[in-house]
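Final report, Chapter 2: Outcomes

The project's central promise was a pipeline that accepts a single protein chain and returns its three-dimensional structure in a standardized token representation, suitable for archiving and comparison. That pipeline is now operational. To close this chapter, we reproduce one record exactly as it appears in the project archive, with the input sequence first and the structure output second.
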Amino acid sequence: MKFQKSIQTLLLAIVLSFCLFLSIQQNLMASEISTSSGSIAETDILSDPKGFPKLESAIDQYLISIPSGYYTIAKVEDLKSLMASRQPLLVDVREPSEYRSGHIPGAINIPLRTLARNLSKIPNDSPVVMYCSTGYRSSMGVMTLHLLNYDNVQGFPPSFAGWKASGEEIAK
């Protein structure tokens, strides 16, 4: 099953890359047409009415449709509440040396760069919360897992810095 998901993700990446390539080629052709003829009609098949390439427009529509806060736990209090009620798996995606210097109690360490090799440690049927030091790496981890059909994963943007600044317990 996980092998099938990996193949699906790889195929999705190939298709998106191909679509992006076509979009770039179409934009280049449109640019050449515009230069030689002076303008392109608004109904040009290379773009939607707003002027965005169709792939970019589809991605934009998808991103707009994501409810605010859907992939995130924005406050330390909200994470503590989730930890008390649903016991999520906390995944610290920082490097091992960062994790050893201090982490949220109960968190496991799976560095972002090793995430794909450690999918067996991440359940897909119970809550998972990812964090790092500032939010950047954890957001990449959340996106990666969502692409791999994990719909139970959220990020904690306050990350370790926010947890520490709020005076919460730190494990070593």
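Archive annotation: Strands lie at 89-92, 108-109, 128-131, 153-155.
This record, like all others produced under the grant, will remain available to the consortium after the project formally closes.
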